[in-house]
Automatic annotation (TrEMBL):
Coiled-coil regions listed in the entry: 37-96, 152-263, 289-316
Organism for this UniProt entry: Microtus ochrogaster (Prairie vole)
Keyword flag Ubl conjugation: no
Gene label: Mad1l1
Keyword Transferase: no
Identification of the protein by name: Mitotic spindle assembly checkpoint protein MAD1
Amino acid sequence: MLPTDDSSKVSFESSLPRTPEDLSRFVVELQQRELALKEKNNAITSSARSLEKAQQQLQDEVRQVSAQLLEERKKRESHEALARRLQKRNVLLTKERDGMRAILGSYDSELTQAEYSAQLTQRMWEAEDMVQKVHAHSSEMEAQLSQALEDLGVQKQRADTLEMELKMLRAQTSSTETSFPFCKEEVDALRLKVEELESERSRLEQEKQALEMQMERLTLQGDYNQSRTKVLHMSLNPTSMARQRQREDHDRLQGECERLRGLVHALERGGPIPADLEAAPSLPSSKEVAELRKQVESAELKNQRLKEVFQTKIQEFRKVCYTLTGYQIDVTTESQYRLTSQYAEHQSDCLIFKATGPSGSKMQLLETEFSRSVPELIELHLLQQDSIPAFLSALTIELFSRQTSI
């Protein structure tokens, strides 16, 4: 980091390069310093990323071991419940077996040898079969119980192992977390340092651009090293001669402008032209000016009369067209013409044509509310016959028949 106090600014400004060589060296130093700062920034960023990645891996391992421990605890609880159910069932079967033996013993003690019958013998056989089945089922239940107890022991051992691993991981995580505050503080400090280095780099770039602009400006202004360069002044300097000619031309043009202003003022007043102005070359006399004014006035009067005649003829031509064709033609916009029939029922009933070809050789009918009311005539005369005069004639007959029928 560079110092940013006022004394450093003064020393920096005093150490600004005065020659192009000093500026080049200063720019090279700035570039080297910028590369060193970038390398340091990359190293700090990579170390911070590795620390964050290690912390994330430890957290993932802790979550995985916690999930496995929870699953093993659920399995152990289910096996313990199954073992308790099997033990209860074994006790019930043992009690049932003892009850059956007691019943058979009571039968044997009450009956004599002569009282035995075939039915009792069959029942005894059935009871013995049932007792054998009960013994087989009881042995099977005992085997299942022993297997369940073995599984339960295995699950307990695995659960204890997972608990030990979880404790070790928690201890490692806690030790990592205790060391992480220093790492986080170091990362924050490194980030602040990176930001400061970035701001310093931008400031140095701005100073570099300012120095380059200053160097270019000095070069354009003709600055040079007086200790190494000698200036030779020519006796006939082209620049001095050009400046002299420019001053002479300026004086001559200024005098001519003054003379012309005097002539304009004299002509505006209508008085005689001064001798010095009249003697100037290419300047008309007062008589010529008067004749020119009369010619302009007569040309303007003739133009006005022609406009009046043209306006009268145009109105006359429009009236004749309206009387002969029955349509009043008005120009709405460029290349668009509105036709209104003298037999129209409403003032808004009109047709609009647009000139599409060169010099108005082709006309196109635009859609209006009135044109939508005569689709049969458009279909017949425009689309099939391709004749605008036939369409206008048929429309005139149609409107005339409507008025006469009314």
